[in-house]
Amino acid sequence: MAATEELAPLTGATKIIGTVSLALATFMNVLDTSIANVSLTSIGGDLGAATTQVTWVITSFAVANAIAVPLTGWLSQRFGAVRLFVASIVLFTIASFLCGLSSTLQMLITFRVIQGAVAGPMIPLSQALLLSSFPKAKAGTALAIWAMTTLVAPVTGPMLGGWITDNISWPWIFYINIPVGAFAAIVTWGVYKNRETPRKKLPIDVVGLGILIVWVGSLQIMLDKGEELDWFHSSAIVALGLIAAIGFCAFIVWELVENSHPVVDLRLFGRRNFWTGTLAFALGYAVFFGNVVILPLWLQQYMGYTATDAGLLTAPVGILALLLSPFVGRRVGKTDPRILGTVAFLIFAISLYMRTRYNTQANFGFLVVPIIVQGAAMAFFFVPLVSLILSGLPPERIPAASGLSNFARILAGSFGTSIATTAWDNRAILHHAQLTEYVTANSDASRSYIQTLQFGGLSLQQAGAAINRSIDVEAHLLAANDLFWVSAVLFMLMIGVIWLARPVKGASPPGAAGGAH
């Protein structure tokens, strides 16, 4: 069994084939975090479930995935990174098949839990295996390839899921994983089976794992259900919040005291570049993902877009991301990643400021320009920050570091989604109340508009409903613009977090010796 640091980089066709297999597995994983979002109505209709129940199809995957991701370090030491990665692909593919076969909501949720759990190690290990495939000087290129798959998949998910649901049937959003998973598992094993990492027979930190499941599960369910249950006006949300807070504190204490074999290596946060990079990564992703969720909701609910059309509008975000990622990958070993991360946050801020100009009459071309600009930010976001997070770490610690930083990103994304949707609704209620003040029985404009609607065949009640709908559309536009504005300001402020890190000298790529602590 060769140690990771003793392995020579892959070359020629082997490197290309291995990279493609890792990229496909990552793409399949990330795709499944969003592909079911636009299919919930169809799933609920076929399985006889209410909308509030069918959202557990998303929540169950997210909870299981969030719990499994930080376990990557321990699992890879126990079973080997290659075996664990290939096993994750195989189990994910089987779980996907079972999801498609589900005839009840309970079955589907059960298999989504399994799917999310086995998917946990895939993203961190794809990073680690990619880095071992390339020379250390080309680490940025390896991360750029990884970033491209994680950039395209979330955008492709809703578009592909909407098209499959509209033109075939919802089970096929899971069945499409079968050929991809089979190919990725076979090829990855063929390329990497002789590059296994050292294994250690480590005991299981049962207490730490149990506490992790309790507090992460409680927090994820609280975030996913908070909007529906009116947040802390609900006793269930209060209880979940208390369990999550107490469990989190207990977990920190236990993992730091349990010195022999903690389930999560929290001592990574003792490295300055790890905690600053992870903080910037998580905060940036929270603001980014909150806006990713709001935009298609606004388009579909208030601009008359179908799920497929909304996906087509958001898809161009991948254009500049794909074009610029290789450039960023080449520069990350030569340029201070703090500078590249600053560029990302500046472009995010510009893109979001451009969105504050949106209006209800905006056409496709006007709406899509800020989305294209955002693609450049995404290219500069993932690669430099991941490079900063992993800088100076020995190869055997990369799976644990990648798992922990991605865990922070996933949780931050949940926070961002919950905060964004709640803020959007609250601001819309405020704007609706303010706009309604201008629509009164004594207003000449109001009377004239109502008369016009009545001449068009509407009753007085129907005319009132039409006016209320118009106000609602305008209120949600203003609320979205508020959110875009605040998000732009937050990205500008978060640049300071990046510069808390120490500079990475020269070409100090992930996995290289030395580096900043």
Explained architecture:
The chain is mostly helical. The protein has helices at 12-31, 40-47, 51-54, 56-68, 72-79, 81-101, 105-119, 122-133, 139-167, 172-175, 177-192, 206-225, 235-257, 272-302, 307-314, 317-331, 337-355, 364-390, 398-436, 444-455, 460-498. The protein has three domains: 1-204, Growth Hormone, Chain: A (Up-down Bundle); 206-262; 268-517, Growth Hormone, Chain: A. It contains 21 helices and no strands. The radius of gyration is 24 Å and the shape is globular. Helix content is 74%, strand content 0%.
What does the secondary structure layout of this molecule look like, with pairings?
Layout: H1 12-31, H2 40-47, H3 51-54, H4 56-68, H5 72-79, H6 81-101, H7 105-119, H8 122-133, H9 139-167, H10 172-175, H11 177-192, H12 206-225, H13 235-257, H14 272-302, H15 307-314, H16 317-331, H17 337-355, H18 364-390, H19 398-436, H20 444-455, H21 460-498
Helix pairs in contact: 1-8, 1-9, 1-11, 4-7, 4-12, 5-6, 5-19, 6-7, 6-8, 6-11, 8-9, 8-19, 9-15, 9-16, 9-18, 12-13, 14-18, 14-19, 14-21, 16-18, 17-18, 17-21, 19-21
Q: What sort of overall outline do the alpha carbons produce when their principal axes are compared?
A: globular
**CATH topology call of the largest domain:** Growth Hormone, Chain: A
Quantity of strands, as a count: 0
CATH class of the largest domain: Mainly Alpha
The string of secondary-structure elements, in order, is HHHHHHHHHHHHHHHHHHHHH
Gross CATH architecture of the largest domain: Up-down Bundle
Largest sheet: none
- Alpha-carbon Rg, integer: 24 Å
The parts where pLDDT drops under 50 for at least 5 residues are 1-5, 511-517
CATH superfamily of the largest domain: MFS general substrate transporter like domains
**Into which percent range does the helicity of residues fall?**
over 70%
Give the strand content: under 5%
- The helix tally amounts to 21
Q: What separation lies between the terminal Cα atoms?
A: 29 Å
SS content category: mainly alpha
How many domains, in number, for the residues?
A: 3
- Average pLDDT confidence is 83
